[in-house]
Amino acid sequence: MFLVSRLNRDSLLNATIVDVERCFPKYTIVGKLSVDDVMQLIPDAEGDFGRKVGISVEGAVVHVAVSSKKLLAFKKSTTCAKCHVEGAYFLILRNPNCPRQTSLEMFTEEGRLMTRDHIVPSSLGGENTLDNSQTMCLMCNSKKGNTMPTDHV
Fold it and tell me: Any residues with CB less than 8 A from the CB of 31 and at least 6 apart, and which?
């Protein structure tokens, strides 16, 4: 475990390869899980949001929410819809200011963060549903911004 350093948002969005230090300043890495292990924990459909499971990490149990729209989107696909980079592992991250707050975040082998993208952006009337979600790496999602799929080349 180590404490992650700070970096400003502009540096994050301009980075070619995004790593934990840039994405989650001050967060503590609690553990690392394979994509297959996490996929088994995620429910098959929307609903029951906030459901947590206990994961044993170095003899301690860490409670992590496994029923978010982000994780459901990852269950549909672990590949970036634009550049086709593949998610390779999940990190369990803990907010040191709120130790009970943990998250599961997926990264590529190179350390690039994978995100949930709204295909039709919320700002343009897109719904916050699984049908309007796709997996994208942070770089592609940042470049897409709030453009419609037909606008983004």
Answer: 55, 57, 58, 62, 91, 92
**Whether pTM exceeds 0.70:** yes
* Strands ordered across the beta sheet of 28-34: 28-34, 89-94, 102-107
pLDDT along the chain (153 residues), means of 10: 33 45 80 88 69 75 79 93 94 84 88 93 91 94 86 49
User: What Å distances lie between residue 121 and 137, 140, 150, CA to CA?
Assistant: 16, 14, 12
What are the phi and psi torsion angles at 134 (to 5°)?
-145, 160
Amino acid at 111: G
Of the candidates 118, 110, 116, 117, the one whose C-alpha atom is nearest the C-alpha of residue 86 is: 110
Buried b (16+ CB within 10 A) or exposed e, 113-142: bbbbbbbebeeeebeeeeebbbbbbbbbbb
Coil, helix or strand at residue 114: strand
Q: Using the structure block, give the residue that is written with the tokens 């390779």.
A: 88
